[in-house]
Structure formats: C-alpha cells, structure tokens
Request: fold
Amino acid sequence: MAQKETGAKTIINNGFLEKYMASAPTAYTLVYICAQKFIQEGNEYFTDEQLAQSLGMTEGDIKRAIKFWEDNGEVLRKQRIIQPVTKITHIVSDKPSYAQDEIEYYLKHNAEFKGLVDSAKSAMGKIIGRYDIETIFSFHDWLGLPLSVIEILIQYCCDNDHKNMRYIEKVAIAWADSGINTAKAALEYIEKYNGTYSRIMRSLGLSGKSPVEKQVEYMKKWVDKMPIDLVLFGCEKAAMAVGNGNPFPYADKIFSSWEKKGINSLEMAKQEDERFFNKKDKGSTAYTAKSSGTNVKSTKFTNYEEHEWDYDVLSRLKFKELTQNLGDAGDGNKN
Reply:
C-alpha cells in the first residue's frame, strides 16, 4: 500500500528568488519562506510566536525580518500576519543580538546607515568594531530611534567627552523612554542640557563638570517646577553653605522648603530672606532663658527655640554668615 503524501508544497515566486536570494540575510529569507508556507496552507492568522517556534528563532528575530520585508516592498502584514501587541521595555538584557550577515547587509545596502557608522567613527575618533556597530543598529531597530536622531545623540555624547558605547547606549535608552525621537526634540534637549543645566552646575560651584544621571534627575525636577532664576538663586545658597561637599541634596531641601511655603519666584525668595534676617537682627541682643533658668545672650544659634529650626533656617543662617565673611568676594560669587 502506497504511503499517503502528507506534506504540501510551498511555492516561492521566481522574482523573489532572483531579487533577494543572494543578498538578503539568511534568517530573513527563512522567515519569508515559512510565512509563505503558513499562508499557502490556509493559516493566514498565524502569529510571530508560531513563526518563531517553527524556525527556532526569537520573536524579536521575527519582527526584524518582517520589518525588513515590509521595507523592501514585500508586505507580509497585508497577508494577515497578526502580531501580538507587546510593550517595549528598554532593558539592556533584552537587547537583541544580530547575525553578522544582518549587519553586513545594512552596511552594504543602506547608505544612510553606513553614513551613520562613518559619522560615529569620526565623532569617537577611532575605528569601531562589530559590537559598537551592532549597538548603533540596535538604537534604530530596538529602541526605534531614527538614524538622524542617533547621529545627533552620538555627536552630543562625544562632545561631552563620553565616547564609551555603553554610556552612549544608556543615553539612547533614556532618550527613547523620554520620547526624544525627532531631530528637533533632540536638539532642544541638547540646548537645554548644555544651556540650563550648565548654568545650574556653575551656580552649584561645579563649573566645567558633566552632571551624572542622578544630578540630571535633580535638575530636571527643579526646572520643571520653578523658574530658572529661582533655581539659580537656591543653588548659589546651597553652594555657599556646603562648600566642597555635594550641594545637590542641600539645594533640593531648600527647594522643598520653598515649595511648602508657596515661594515660587525669585522676588518671593529674596523677601523671605529679608524678613528672616530682619527678625534675626532684631533679636540679636535679646536674652533667652534655658530650661535651667539661666539667662544667656542670644546668638544666631540660640535666638530660636529648638522646635522652630528647619532646613531653610539653617540654609539662610549659613548663607548670610559666609556672605558676610567673604565680603566683596561673596557678592561676586552671587553674580
């Protein structure tokens, strides 16, 4: 008894073979053939997961392959391939890996990507290897950033003396998560970073230093809530009080205190300082009694009861004391 044929034939158009078989990445070609198999078997509603299981690939591999064919006019999505909706989480451990022929294909056939790689070499001042090229490609494929934005990003990092690809990758992830996905948005961010953030760093006595991620978080929070002149004023106060220490937490507590008091302008902050100093000066010759009943002369450290002390009070006291001691030098620093 003859064995019944169970396998059907999958027909591939000769035009496809002639156009892509020799040049397309092997993995992409396999995805196309498998998709045609499903379609010709009448299973038009297969998912990326089914394709991945059939080929022993990841769903990320499948998505890249389908996008490749769509970019080349082979619109598999119109043949009713259904992709499950997944939320992208930009975690480095989830970054795709790429076959060497994938990267080589884009370098050979995509002039814009090749130009981006050449620009990165120039900005970084070195010949970049496969890892760096794959990482740059992932900014576009994985994070969804346009090539023009990636070029701006790499140049921006290198201009700030950050030429390590792992650092650049962190910035790329941050931009993607923040929606910085157009050249205009990228340039506006850089202007803010190199302008506003640099002014804040100078006010904190950290001129010439590039802020780290935590410091950027502080500054972004401040400028989102307060006008820049108020931020700069508070930062100057923190720098005077802290000296060579870390002024960011101190400044943040000043701003928190102002927020609780409804102080939201430079004029209000200066008026608050003036009221405080006037009150302190009037009480500088008064005498206060300790719990023992002994009278001691009030000083700037004793003319407030213990329960009245708060962080803003300490800030003002330290700021005025240092300003008076520095004299003209202190006034010059405030400018």
Notes: The chain has 16 helices and two strands.
